[in-house]
Amino acid sequence: MKIAILPGDGIGPEIMEQAVRVLNALGEKFEMETAPVGGAGYAASGHPLPEATLKLAKEADAILFGAVGDWKYDTLERALRPEQAILGLRKNLGLFANFRPAVLYPELAGASSLKPEVVSGLDIMIVRELTGDIYFGQPRGVRTAVDGPFKGEQEGFDTMRYADTEIRRIAHVAFQAAQKRSKRLTSVDKANVLETSQFWRNIMIEVSKEYPDVALDHMYVDNAAMQLVRAPKAFDVIVTGNMFGDILSDEAAMLTGSIGMLPSASLDKNSKGLYEPSHGSAPDIAGQGIANPLATILSAAMMLRYSLNRAEQADRVEQAVKKVLAQGLRTGDIYEAGTKKVGTKEMGDAVVAAL
Length: 355
Ligand code: NAD
Hints:
Layout: E1 2-8, H1 12-24, E2 31-34, H2 39-45, H3 51-59, E3 62-67, H4 84-93, E4 97-103, H5 116-119, E5 123-129, E6 141-144, E7 154-157, H6 164-179, E8 184-189, H7 195-208, E9 215-220, H8 221-230, E10 237-240, H9 242-255, E11 263-267, E12 273-277, H10 294-306, H11 311-326, E13 329-330, E14 340-341, H12 344-354
The structure holds nicotinamide-adenine-dinucleotide (NAD).
């Protein structure tokens, strides 16, 4: 099994180092090859997604990605900014299904901004469509309005669109994810206002007939945003489009108190995937050895489960993370009085030791 290791920028290399140590501690020899991406890609060869990096990502069985972005690249033209590397990888590899779990370990219940009884033990999965919707729909741009009350003025516009096949394939992925969990799926849309959403909802209902064991319900996105902070544990698997998923998955991440704990996976139709922490490159703490490596380590666990077919090893890594939390070890982002503050490497050491 070949794994492409793309550490990226900021804290990316520090957290990736620990995830690689954890993979090496599993007792199996994975072939791992490292390549620059994001700002590091631009610095190495003038593009955030260098050709050699894309080639490696295409050849590999799975990709473990750190994070990209740094303030020093903010003045580059948009096409050369580090964040374009992720969009390029998603597009080139056809990674249309984004899995964002939001899990709150009981030991960290105090880190959430919600009351512990509302969130303790939270374990939900958001399945977000990643390659369609208003983020990619054409036409888009700025033009002179040709009609309406603002005729003659400049106006910005985007296009929300979803094709039948695009909705169907994410629906199947989400129903199958629900089958492996508590067999409940909530499809989130805005069908009361948007044609695209009504179409989405109709297809979800059609596909649901192939999964009679899964209970499907529907929720408008504004209500879903509310319910996520009112009673998040009422959800199990949520499936939604690209834009709504972008917003709801960040909201769900915050319920858990630390973005430094949350992994994510983006899969293609054959379950080849890119695995990355849900957070960014945290340039404010880069190079200080204090970043939390657990989201990246848990991303490696997701990679073992979904792309490398090694569920048992994934369980081992997840159990090891639980164990170090139970031992009271915390990086600064999840630190509370009465626990022991450790740095990035010490946290990696502890997970390896627990393994
Ligand atoms: P961020 O997630 O990098 O940081 C937000 C806050 O969370 C910061 O205070 C940071 O110190 C903290 N934080 C994040 N990860 C942490 C960790 N593992 N351990 C401890 N603390 C952690 O978001 P931002 O500041 O909005 O963005 C910084 C850069 O990252 C930008 O250039 C942005 O474009 C980029 N970004 C990249 C990705 C990605 O690579 N997938 C995602 C989001 C943002």
